[in-house]
Amino acid sequence: MNGRRTVAALPLALILFACGGPAGEPTEEAAAEPAAAPTATTRVAFSGGPEGGTFQYFSNGMATRLSKTVPGLEVSNTASAGSLENLRRVNSGEVDFGIVYSGDTYLGRNGKLTQDDRKYENVHAMAFLYGAPAHLVVLADGGISKVADLAGKRVAVGGAGSGAASAAQRYFTSVGLWDQMNPEFLGYSKAAAALGDKLIDAFWVFAGYPNSSVIQAAASNEIKLLDLVAEGEAAGFFDEYPFYTRLTIPAGTYGGVDNDVASFQDSALWVAGQHLAADTVYSALSDIYSEEGLAYMVKVKSTAKSMSIASGLDGIVTPVHAGAERFWSENGLQLTLEQSAR
After folding, report:
1. What is the pLDDT of residues 152-165, one digit of tens each?
2. Peptide bond into 210 cis (omega under 30)
């Protein structure tokens, strides 16, 4: 028995000696080496949009780049119905980043969303991404030439809970058509296919141009886009919703549409939850709004050409995240009272 104990003890003694002493104390050489710093990973969830929509291109592109280029940051992209769902997800802390229209951010913060008087005050803006113009697409030979002709028609307005559907309801309610037409809650790609199959009479897209789903519709059918400004002005739509701005979708943007089309836009904003650390927001902005980051985003989606340091705070009428305030201030932009009111 004693012999066995001695044999068993020899390796232990050798181990202890190698470790520096009987108590396992480090050797002098080992003690001189600095301890390795623990590697902490910050995991962030980014809520994008429906398949085929500009939101999803942007969120997926940014999530992919940030995960590769910002040390210690891992960003996962998740699909969603769009702006309103993103607003609610970010506000609740279910996700950290999202893309939300400025109008939804403003109305949500002030408890003025349609049939929803809750106040979404945890959602803070990070940056302006692009202007999202409304498209109202019909078949060229469908007998519809103006917005008023949609009374009694089947109109796809975007997915349920999306910013597109919310904007459509505001617009069509303002011009007196929401209760007279038959809204269908379809995503953009499905709506484009449904128009070609004549299952619907029109579809609404609220996204940067050129939009892939409108391109899809134009490739398979002769289409036209309806003027949205004339009837909106007559109804007082732009007075009621001052965050919408008029614009023109240029002739030739889509195949067969050879005329300028009067429309309006909201601003798509990159937002973060108030709960997210300021350093994380600052690092993300620093990477995406670098020269390399902006060039990358244009490759992801040409709509990103509107992103720049100079336009970083455009269209924002609500509070900006503390990390974003630091970034934009360092880059020479001055926040408005509304943007700095946290």
Report:
1. 999 999 998 787 89
2. yes
